[in-house]
Design goal:
Largest sheet of chain A: 7 strands, mixed
Oligomer: heterodimer
Order of helices and strands of chain B: EEEEEEEEEEE
Strand content of chain B: over 45%
Helix content of chain B: under 10%
Helix content of chain A: under 10%
Shape of chain A: globular
Radius of gyration of chain A: 13 Å
Order of helices and strands of chain A: EEEEEEEEEEE
Largest sheet of chain B: 6 strands, mixed
Largest interface: A-B, 22 and 21 residues
Number of helices of chain A: 0
Chain lengths: ~120, ~110
């Protein structure tokens, strides 16, 4: 089946630094990638939608200058958390529409801890 | 605005029992209703999904019941096992567009 590989699985960074999270579609082309944020024991909250070759679309309340999304190719989308602060600590998950069967496949998630 | 409402928030079931999680939606344009299973520290994984042209879909111990007129759908886990302990999310989408997730149900199956 379709696989989205997400790296890193966990990262600890210092406050004020930037962190890049990568999601790669391994055996299919992902023209669209959804980025979610999940707090402990809560549901997934859509942050933004990236489309290959165009600017990402951000959900209301999501700072586009803090969460930079790049979708430079049909197999790679990245989320960069810039000038990270402790409140950015969360679980970030990417998801892409899979070709068949219809649905969305998720990455394994990245646990970001900002200290 | 919560597009998909899910209940209960948490559920404790004895091994061998039936786990039932319910979801309701408002948007009649939704045409795809998946359930996802998520273990701690992992991304959600597709468990089972249904389209509104059928009222029930069964895959092993997992069954989705769908009531189009009531705009409700539910997940039934038969013969629940400790390994089924996870968080379950229902979702809904209009083909090709984003998914809307329920708030999740934390299932604990007691041995």
């Amino acid at each position: 089946g379709a696989v989205v590989s997400q790296h890193p699985s966990w990262v600890i960074c210092k406050s004020g630094t930037s962190v890049k999270i990568e999601c790669r579609s391994l055996d299919f082309q992902a023209t669209t990638m959804f980025w979610y944020r999940q707090f402990p024991k809560q549901s997934l909250m859509l942050m933004a939608t990236s489309n290959e070759g165009s600017k990402a679309t951000y959900e209301q309340g999501v700072e586009k200058d803090k969460f930079l999304i790049n979708h430079a190719s049909l197999t790679l989308s990245t989320l960069t958390v810039t000038s990270a602060h402790p409140e950015d600590s969360s679980f970030y998950i990417c998801s892409a529409p899979q070709p068949f069967p219809y649905g969305y496949t998720f990455g394994s998630g990245t646990r970001l801890t900002v200290v | 605005q919560q597009q998909v409402k899910q209940s209960p928030q948490s559920l404790i079931v004895q091994k061998g029992g039936i786990s039932i999680i319910n979801c309701a939606y408002e948007n009649t344009a939704f045409d795809y209703f998946p359930w996802y299973q998520q273990f701690p520290g992992k991304g959600p994984a597709l468990l089972i999904a249904i389209r509104p042209d059928v009222s029930e879909k069964k895959e092993g111990r997992f069954t989705i019941s769908f009531n189009k007129s009531a705009k409700q759908f539910s997940l039934h886990i038969m013969d629940s096992q400790p390994g089924d302990s996870a968080t379950y999310f229902c979702a809904a989408s209009n083909t090709g567009n984003q998914f809307y997730f329920g708030t999740g149900t934390s299932l604990t199956v007691i041995p």
